[in-house]
C-alpha cells in the first residue's frame, strides 16, 4: 500500500477553507498510516511463521527424518543432558572376553622333534606336560545333501508291494531343507540383505548358487509359519497394561501405505495398510476393546478409542519446545522443557529407591508449576481476536493461530495425558519404544526403496514382528526362524506385563 501525501495545492486550499478542512485532510493521512501499519504487522507475522516452518526438521519437531531432504544437516542442540558417568564400560559391567574352552571340539598334538641342545631324537620319549593354546575358528561350510530312500518290499505271503514312508516335509524328488530356508529368511528379514546379494552370499560361502525365486519363496513360507505366533502376540497386546503405538509411511506397489506398530517391552506387532486412520487400526485388531493405557504422539485418531486411557510422548514435546524457544525466543518453552525433565528425574529417583509413587506434596507442586508455565506461555502469546477485519469469515472451523499457541493448547487441554508418567510409574516418559520398533522397518525401506507387492510388505511386517518379539524375549533369532520352519514358532509366555 502506498501512502498518498497531500499536495501543496491541497494543503493551501484546506487552510483557506478553515481548520476543519485541515483536520480532515490529515485524518485521511493518519488512516492510511494505520492501515499500512496493520499490513506490515500481518506481513511480519507471515514471514516469521514461514521462517519457523522452514526451520522445522526431525530433530526439533514431529516431522519424520525422511522430510529433512539431502542437504547438509544443521547443527541442533541435543535434548540429552551431559551425565556424570565417564565414557566406556561402567563399574560392574560384565565384559565379553574370549575364554578358554574346557571341552575343545578337536585336539591336535604337535610332537617335539629332536633335542634343541644335543640333537638327540625324542620320538620315543613320553611327554611330561603340554603347553596348550586354543584357536577359535569357523570350519569350512558346504551344502549337505541327504538322500532319503524308501524301501520297496514285496510280501512273500500275498505278493503285495509295500513302500516305506518318507519323513514329514520330504515331498519332492529334489528340494531344499529347513536349514537353507532359515539362512535365506535370516539374511533377508533380520539383516535386510537384498535377494540378489543373498544369493551371492550362498554362492561365496557354500559354493552353491540358489535361484532368487527360491529365496523369495522362503520368506513367504516363513510368513505362514509364524501366523500362530502373530495371533498370540496380538492377544497378549490386547491385555497389556501399557501399550505403545505409532505409525509411519511405507512404500508398497509404488504407492504410499502405512505401517502401524503396537508394542510393549516384550511384544511387537506390525500391520501394513493403505490407510492411516481408524479403519487401519481396527483391522490391526489390537486397539479395539483395549482397556489399558496407550502411549502415542497425539495423533487424533488414537483418541477415538475411548475405552482406554492415553499417555502422550514427551520426547515430542521436548523437541517442539526446543523449536519454539529457538525460533520464537520464548522463555516459557525452556521452562516447560526443564520442568518435564525435572519431573522425569524425580520419578526415576523415586522408582530406583523402591517407591511406588511420588509424595503428594511433590505431585501438587509439580502440577502448580506446570500450570504456571502454561499461564506464562499464554501471556507471551495473546490470542488474536476472531475476525479482526470484520465481515463474514472466509473459512469455516477454528481460525489459524501461531504454532506456540497450538502447543500451549495441547499442554493445557491434555495435562493428565502429558503428566501420566508422573502419577503412574508404569507409564513411560516417551514413546521411544514404538519409534525404535518402527525404525527397523524404515531401514528396510531405505535399503530396498520399497516393496514391489503389498503381499511382500505384509509378509515382511509379520516376520519382523516375530523377530522383534523373539529378540525382546532374549531368544536367538536364527533358532527362532528355524523352529518356525519346523512347525514350532516361538510364542512368548503370558507373563504379566
**Overall geometric form:** elongated
Radius of gyration over C-alpha positions, nearest whole angstrom: 35 Å
Strand pairing plus helix content: what structural class?
alpha/beta
Strand segment tally: 7
Describe the structure.
The chain is an alpha/beta fold and 497 residues long. Among the domains are: 1-45, no CATH class; 176-312 and 450-497, no CATH class; 314-380 and 401-423, no CATH class. Helix content is 46%, strand content 8%. It contains 16 helices and seven strands. The protein has helices spanning 8-17, 19-55, 178-190, 195-206, 212-225, 227-238, 278-284, 314-328, 331-352, 360-380, 403-413, 415-418, 420-423, 432-448, 454-472, 477-485, and strands at residues 152-154, 161-163, 242-252, 255-263, 268-273, 293-296, 309-312. Strands 5-4-3-6-7 form a five-stranded mixed β-sheet, sandwiched between helices. Strands 1-2 form a two-stranded antiparallel sheet. Helix 1 crosses helix 2 (19-55) and helix 8 packs antiparallel against helix 9. The longest helix has 37 residues, at 19-55. The protein is elongated and about 140 Å long. It starts with 7 loop residues before the first helix and ends in a 12-residue tail after the last helix. The mean pLDDT is 88.
Q: What attributes characterize this protein structure?
A:
8% strand; five-stranded mixed β-sheet; 497 residues; alpha/beta; 16 helices
List the helices and strands and how they pair.
Elements (H helix, E strand, L loop, with lengths): L7 H10 L1 H37 L96 E3 L6 E3 L14 H13 L4 H12 L5 H14 L1 H12 L3 E11 L2 E9 L4 E6 L4 H7 L8 E4 L12 E4 L1 H15 L2 H22 L7 H21 L22 H11 L1 H4 L1 H4 L8 H17 L5 H19 L4 H9 L12
Parallel strand pairs: 3-6, 6-7
Antiparallel strand pairs: 1-2, 3-4, 4-5
